[in-house]
Amino acid sequence: MASNAHIRTGRLSQEELEENFADLHPPLSRSEALIEADRCYFCFDAPCTTACPTGIDIPGFIQKIRSDNLRGSANTILSENIMGGMCARVCPTEILCEEACVRNTHEEKPVEIGLLQRYSTDPVFESGDQLFERAPSSGKTIAIVGGGPAGLSCAHRLAVLGHDVVVFNRDSKLGGLNEYGIAAYKAINDFAQTEVDYILSIGGIEVRCNSTLGSDIELDELRQNYDAVFLGIGLAQSNNLGIAGEDLDGVFNAIEYISELRQAEDKSRLPVGSDVVVIGGGMTAIDVAVQSKRLGAEQVHIVYRRGPEQMSASVFEQALAQTSGVTIHHWASPARILGADHVTGVEFDTDSSEDGMRLAADVVFKAIGQRMDSSGIEEIATESGRFVVDIHQKTSLDGVWAGGDCVVGGDDLTVSAVQHGKIAALSIDQYLRDA
């Protein structure tokens, strides 16, 4: 985002920025963790475990916290979800495990499972304590395209099973949306790369960054040179609004700005608008809106075409935006973006007014979702622009699996992508051993 008269740097002091981008959920102390762990009923048929996409034995890891066996607790978590550290930070626990908690009633709050998971796993990632070891070498090598949660999960499980892995990654860093696409206050102190380093430390995983499918590498070539292929390519292309004014200066893709923010060494040097309008209703919309406000924007509006119940952002995230000073408007669709050279506002069609709604803006963020780049993968069956896979994450093409946001049913959650990668790895392992 270029700086100009409308969009400028230095809206807040360094001290204000540090406060605004501090840890969203500070970690629990030992006494806090023990008190919280004691609240667990240790249900036999634990609904929290059923609600977890990766099937973590939640009562089991919490029980180990009570006995001060943090290493064992972390092993319980990471054996099912190797990215359990990041998921403890970004997982929408309020609609998954914590919503299912039997303590989640009108009278009391659920057990804070996410914070307890972070309490267990952080020491392992900080120390580099390797909880896993590789099986004897199988002599097989698998190509993984995409170094996000799905690809890294698949790579780690395959490495543990004794296979060699080569990860081809489009970006200069591994991590996918964990590195480039989530709010900076959710994963401070470069935690995404700390987790990546831990995953790679198992050994047997070669990384080739700045390698894009369809230009730097071809699927046919990978199928010829490797024993199996896993595609975790995500949704690399942003959707467009398709309205007048979309090409004006000051109109940006939200995910690209979040990426710029996440990689910025000095947030005070980031150009920030004064009046910001975000179009969309998902997590990306919330993240870019809240961060704009915390960077010093004076007015920030999120506008969504449907109601709050239809927003893919969770109730917690919607409340976070509102308590951060963001105004959310519903039932309004963008009609056109106003301005001559630079954006000056947005007009919306609304259900409540024949005259619609107009918001002043010097920055407009498009956060209406992403789509898959299909370059070089046209021969794989897709539906609605995503790969069709079976219950083992296998595509229609022999020897090729896929997972994460790029498959039908992908839900833009790290935890789901990790599960896809794990399932695919187990299927690939069986495929190779049966060959």
Structure description:
This protein is an alpha/beta fold and 435 residues long. It folds into three domains: 98 residues, Alpha-helical ferredoxin (Fumarate Reductase Iron-sulfur Protein, Chain B, domain 2); 159 residues, FAD/NAD(P)-binding domain, CATH 3.50.50.60; 131 residues, FAD/NAD(P)-binding domain. It has 16 helices and 19 strands. The strands form six sheets. A five-stranded parallel sheet has the order 4-3-2-5-19, with helices on both faces. α6 crosses α8, α13 crosses α14 and α14 runs parallel beside α15. The chain is globular. The mean pLDDT is 95.
According to CATH, the fold-level topology of the largest domain is FAD/NAD(P)-binding domain
Beta fraction: 15-25%
- What overall form do the CA principal axes indicate? globular
Q: What is the multimeric organization of the chains shown?
A: single chain
Question: In CATH, what is the homologous superfamily of the largest domain?
Answer: FAD/NAD(P)-binding domain
Task: Let me know the average pLDDT.
Answer: 95
Number of strands: 19
Major sheet characteristics: 5 strands, parallel
- Beginning-to-end CA distance, first to last residue: 51 Å
Strand order of the largest sheet: 4-3-2-5-19
Radius of gyration based on Cα positions: 22 Å
Number of helices: 16
The CATH class of the largest domain is Alpha Beta
Low-pLDDT stretches: none
